[in-house]
Amino acid sequence: MINRLLIANRGEIACRIQRTCRELGIETVAVYSDADATLPHVRGADRAVRLGPAPARESYLDIDKVIRAAQENGADAIHPGYGFLSENAAFAEACARAGLIFVGPGADAIRLMGDKAAARQLMAEHGVPVLPGFDEAEPGDDALAKAATEIGFPLLIKAVAGGGGKGMRIVNDAESFLEALAAARREARNAFNDDRVLLERYLESARHVEVQVFADQHGNTVHLFERDCSVQRRHQKIIEEAPAPGVSEALRQQLGEAAVRAARAINYQGAGTVEFLLAPDGQFYFMEMNTRLQVEHPITELITGEDLVAWQLTVAAGGQLPREQHELTINGHAIEVRLYAEDPARQFMPSSGTLAVCDWPELPGLRVDTGFGRGDQVSDHYDPMIAKVICYGSNREQARRRLRQALVHTHIAGIRHNIAFLLNVLAHPAFVEADLSTRFLEQHNPDTGPDDGTLPLRLAGAALLLRERQRAKTGNDPWDTLNSWQAWLPARYTVTLQQDEVMHAIQLEGPDNALQARWNDTTVALHWHAASGELRSTEGASMQIHGAIEGDVLYLFCDGHVDTLSLRPAPLAGGAMGAAAAFAAPMNGTVVAHHVEAGARVDAGSPVITMEAMKMEHTLRASAPGVVHALPFGPGVTVSEGTLLVEFVADDAETTEG
Does residue 81 contact residue 60 with C-beta atoms inside 8 Å? Predict the structure, then answer.
């Protein structure tokens, strides 16, 4: 019996575990870094303990601090969540030495499955199919290059100690192998302190299908069916669904049996996920086993009606599995998207900052798992996921439609995010038809940036929202302090707004059913339905417009896009950044590598410097041929967004100066 549980994690998963603990009457102890002191997972716990500064190695990854926090606060068990110490065998052993229940498998299982090479070898021995590859212990670069040629291209370089897409590179030819190998080793070393890699044949049109398994201490092992996680970016899952579309009952049984066989091969206990690549011909291959609760576990909960965290706590306390295999059934369909703080229009660069707006809708079938709220700070020290938005339906199409509606009515501002991108993916014909593969985004290339074609409609919507607010204002309305509204007239309404460095003076005329919006040389004829927020042009384009006002800023939400409009427009200083603009730090982060030395001449597209932020690497490349004059910041130096990382002069700039 667990009475008090320390949750050795943060954010969304910590809040998720707390929810089950409250239902079971288990007290919770939260831990936090200085960057997370005010987040909901701290506020929602019965007790909270500061671990240390923001860097994870000084807080969430410090085993001694976590164990001490549990002991000093009377916890009898620790739940690691996912990420951080969740698949750390030394942490599981430290819990055992301290007399604490570790909510997860034994250290031996973690260690074995954490070594991707050893896991491949063991699965092959137990009849679980594996891809052709090379998994010898600690080979040198020359041996790997030779093996790559023998395996053939394309192939995948995979970190032996990896997970979460870190330390993985797809290589299409021998010429690019060594550069990709160096990048994979470096990322693996930074993420796992282990730069060993293995090689596997890369299946270009395969699906990523995984099976949820559970085992207890009494010899019982079951699976809770499969999930499809094929829609990925840089090997990071973005959209997951259960059950996997198009999987027959016969194939489902084969996948489940293979997953259970894998778990039994290592005497597994607790929650685990066996991941497979599913080829177009129906053959599947073992990829890896994650010895923890998965990010995407909610979709399995929704189709089975089971609480997987409650299962974990039961098994960890010595109890038997709550269900036998024949008692588990699939009901309906569930789809989950990962809402990230990132900018799809800038190659998905991570974003950080304060959530000026964070509003979730209430809709049928919707579940939102998040660890953030309005006013919370999204730190650049950790994974950029803000929330998981999950929808359930009686079938896949209902779940998909509900999820799109939920995202349209989700309002996040203050940081950049991927809502509009997710909406585009969910609406893509290939996704609608469940034509899925791990190359989905590469093959179909959904739009990543704002739809500039809807800008006139969005700006007109901003002016309309302001007009509606003016009509409804009271004596205590903050708009009373804005001088620009004092000249408002019902028949003609003009407002000047600033978007980035561009000023827009928008004039509205006429009643709602025959509106005209004008600015510069643009005129748009509109119909406005204030009750629903729908704005429709006479050309047929339409969108739902919602807004939030914080101080002198209007945040406008339209089909997943966010426009940030200043209500007190003023000219901005500054000009062109010149040829070196490509080398300004695109986000807060740490320099990890120089690819050239000062004085080097580079071609357009050549890698020059790599930085790491939110656990992902980003390589900055020359936008034009030129000379690297200086590299002011060496590896290990932390820089802020906008910092000039490379003193670079393009060839055309030198010609102009001469």
Answer: no
Question: 584: which DSSP letter?
Answer: B
DSSP 83-136: STTTT-HHHHHHHHHTT-EESS--HHHHHHHHSHHHHHHHHHHTT--B-SEE--
Mean per-residue pLDDT of the chain: 89
* From 16, 233, 292, 416, active-site residue: 292
Q: Which amino acid appears at position 487 of this protein?
A: A
Can you give the CATH number for the domain in which 192 is found? 3.30.1490.20
pTM: 0.83
Structurally, the chain folds into a number of domains equal to 5
CA distances from 12 to 40, 202, 371, 422, 536 (A): 9, 33, 4, 19, 37
68 a catalytic residue: no
Please tell me whether residues 407 and 507 are part of one structural domain: no
Q: Hey, is 4 helix, strand or coil?
A: strand
Please state at what angle helix 63-72 crosses helix 89-97, rounded to 10 degrees: 30
In residues, how long is the chain? Answer: 658
For 112, half-sphere exposure in the C-beta direction (CA atoms, 13 angstrom radius) is 16
pLDDT digits (tens, 9 = 90+) for 454-495: 888 888 888 888 877 777 664 444 444 443 333 333 456 777
Each residue of 57-115: pLDDT tens digit?
Answer: 999 999 999 999 999 999 999 999 999 999 999 999 999 999 999 999 999 999 999 88
The tokens describing 567, both together, are 């209500």
282: in domain? yes
Q: Hey, which bits of 552-652 come out as E strands?
A: 553-558, 561-566, 589-594, 601-602, 607-613, 616-621, 626-630, 638-639, 647-650
